[in-house]
């Protein structure tokens, strides 16, 4: 009896344990049952650990090998769940349904050419126009004496032809006497009758001419000589006249002072025209050129701009400050600008003329207008006008006859789109307009610190994270060096949300949000985006 009771209890325990194991491992048992009961030769798509996809159309995924229904390329093999291989320059791809795009507030704008200027702001100062400076020196031989001064202080205004001082010089007084004597002799001497006599004695005015020339070399003007000849008297004091109108910047003599030949008496500056000199550092020097726009502000006149064009760039660098002097000319008829004033100078350089863009244009092959595309080779065209990818990146380039010329594309899927909208895509092969560069809004750029990304809408709701090379920001736009083409649409509002979605849920890169899951027994990944969706890379 005891044995039977123990045996009964053990049977009950064994039955309960078996029932628990069946419930616990029901999925495994059922999978094994399906495997055993499946008809021979039939392999479920989910049981395979490999899949076949199109490198050019990642949305095309099939469980069996074959060709892409869009471009006809042979499908590539990969393991299920393996990370998608993206084209060079594309770091991510995300597909969003129309409702998600509206909810995220995503807005796009086209990449287009525009004239941009790179501004260099530096310090400068107002200086004299060195072409309008005059130094009056003593030209008479020996020692001369200043008899009278008409200029009593520095800063006094003078006009051209006004006397600055009166000078007495024995040598000058003697030269004036010789002039008058030559004049009287010419008048009193009878004219020579023969040619020999005229050659021996000279003409009547020859001595007067030589005397006039001697006085002119000593700084006596023709008007002063005429006045002396008209009066017939020699004044022992001769006025020194100002050669230009301006301001006396330096008076080096006093009344009664003796001066020697070559001594500087006065310095005069014409302030009706001044220079503005700026100092530009050597790392910005390459952006300068003669004739570019420049403007200055001075504290004396807040809010007022003094505009001009660069007239001179110094040929040598200042080794102490590591700067180069740049100047431009300004009219200053009202004498508002005074030499010595500090100025904030801003130089505008067209971005198309900066070294980065100049070198890029120099490296690019010359392009002809699209009417002459028949003469372009693959090496000359370089990029596909539809995808902007480098020709050869997706296999052998494919040619298409468009508008009477041959255009190269990267795959079989590009020619239909090219022929449908030729003006849109052929514009990408045209050279940039003069003084314009490709621009992208600043709001579309995500700066990670090591690289800059923009999200390009390749088809409605599909955004590619593309690495780009940009120039320095100008206002609210960036100039584009590499990575974008004219006419492409970039996300300007909501780009950070797209980037966050890619980082938080990278596996959803090719599946539109909000779309139903594929039915059982079908390849779920191939249902993510319709196979007939617009072509993208």
Polypeptide structure, described:
The chain has 537 residues and is an alpha+beta fold. The protein contains twelve helices and 28 strands. The protein folds into four domains: 93-116 and 436-508, Beta Barrel (conserved putative lor/sdh protein from methanococcus maripaludis s2 fold), CATH 2.40.420.20; 119-128 and 272-350, Elongation Factor Tu (Ef-tu), domain 3 (Beta Barrel), CATH 2.40.30.170; 131-269, RNA polymerase II/Efflux pump adaptor protein, barrel-sandwich hybrid domain (OB fold (Dihydrolipoamide Acetyltransferase, E2P)); 367-429, no CATH class. The strands form seven sheets. Strands 4, 6, 23, 24, 25, 26 and 27 form a seven-stranded antiparallel sheet that branches. A six-stranded antiparallel beta barrel has the order 7-16-19-18-17-20. Strands 8-15-13-10 form a four-stranded antiparallel sheet, with no helix packed on it. Residues 42-46, 365-374 and 508-537 have low confidence and may be disordered.
Give a concise summary.
The chain folds into four domains: 93-116 and 436-508, Beta Barrel (conserved putative lor/sdh protein from methanococcus maripaludis s2 fold), CATH 2.40.420.20; 119-128 and 272-350, Efflux pump adaptor protein, beta barrel domain (Elongation Factor Tu (Ef-tu), domain 3); 131-269, RNA polymerase II/Efflux pump adaptor protein, barrel-sandwich hybrid domain (OB fold (Dihydrolipoamide Acetyltransferase, E2P)); 367-429, no CATH class. 23% of the residues lie in helices and 30% in strands.
């Amino acid at each position: 009896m005891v044995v039977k009771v123990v045996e009964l209890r053990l049977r009950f325990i064994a039955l309960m344990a078996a029932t628990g194991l069946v419930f616990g491992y029901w999925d495994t048992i059922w999978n094994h049952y399906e495997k055993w009961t499946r008809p021979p030769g039939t392999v479920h798509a989910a049981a395979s650990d490999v899949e076949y996809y199109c490198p050019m159309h990642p949305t095309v995924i099939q469980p069996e090998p074959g060709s892409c229904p869009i471009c006809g390329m042979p499908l590539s093999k990969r393991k299920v769940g393996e990370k998608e291989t993206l084209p060079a320059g594309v770091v991510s791809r995300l597909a969003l349904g129309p409702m998600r795009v509206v909810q995220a507030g995503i807005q796009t704008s086209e990449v287009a050419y525009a004239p941009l200027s790179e501004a260099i702001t530096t310090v400068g100062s107002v200086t004299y126009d060195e072409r309008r400076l005059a130094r009056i020196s003593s030209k008479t031989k020996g020692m001369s004496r200043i008899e009278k001064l008409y200029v009593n202080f520095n800063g006094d205004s003078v006009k051209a032809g006004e006397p600055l001082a009166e000078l007495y010089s024995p040598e000058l007084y003697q030269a004036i006497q010789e002039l008058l004597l030559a004049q009287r002799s010419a008048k009193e001497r009878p004219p020579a009758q023969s040619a020999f006599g005229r050659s021996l004695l000279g003409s009547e005015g020859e001595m007067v001419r030589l005397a006039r020339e001697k006085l002119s070399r000593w700084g006596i003007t023709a008007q002063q000589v005429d006045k002396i000849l008209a009066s017939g008297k020699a004044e022992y004091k001769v006025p020194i006249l100002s050669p230009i109108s301006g301001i006396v910047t330096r008076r080096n003599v006093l009344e009664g002072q003796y001066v020697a030949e070559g001594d500087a008496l006065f310095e005069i500056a014409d302030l009706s025209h001044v220079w503005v000199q700026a100092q530009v550092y050597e790392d910005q020097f390459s952006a300068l050129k003669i004739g570019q726009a420049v403007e200055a502000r001075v504290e004396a006149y807040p809010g007022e701009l003094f505009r001009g064009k660069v007239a001179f760039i110094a040929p040598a660098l200042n080794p102490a400050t590591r700067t180069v002097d740049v100047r431009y000319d300004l009219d200053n008829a009202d004498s508002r600008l005074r030499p010595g004033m500090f100025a904030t100078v801003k130089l505008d350089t067209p971005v198309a003329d900066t070294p980065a863009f100049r070198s890029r244009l120099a490296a690019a092959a010359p392009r002809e207008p699209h009417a002459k595309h028949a003469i372009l080779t693959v090496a000359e065209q370089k990029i596909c006008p539809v995808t902007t990818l480098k020709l050869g990146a997706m296999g052998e380039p494919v040619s298409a006859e468009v508008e009477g010329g041959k255009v190269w594309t990267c795959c079989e899927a590009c020619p239909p789109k090219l022929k449908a909208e030729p003006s849109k895509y052929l514009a990408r092969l045209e050279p940039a307009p003069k003084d314009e560069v490709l621009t992208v809004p600043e709001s579309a750029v995500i700066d990670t610190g090591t690289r800059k990304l923009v999200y390009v809408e390749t088809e409605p709701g599909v955004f590619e994270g593309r690495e780009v090379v940009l120039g320095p920001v100008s206002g609210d736009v960036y100039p584009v060096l590499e990575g974008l083409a004219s006419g492409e649409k970039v996300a300007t509002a909501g780009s950070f949300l797209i980037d966050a979605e890619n980082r938080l849920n990278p596996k959803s890169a090719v599946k539109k949000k909000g779309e139903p899951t594929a039915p059982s027994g079908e390849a779920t990944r191939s249902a993510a985006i319709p196979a007939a969706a617009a072509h993208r890379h």
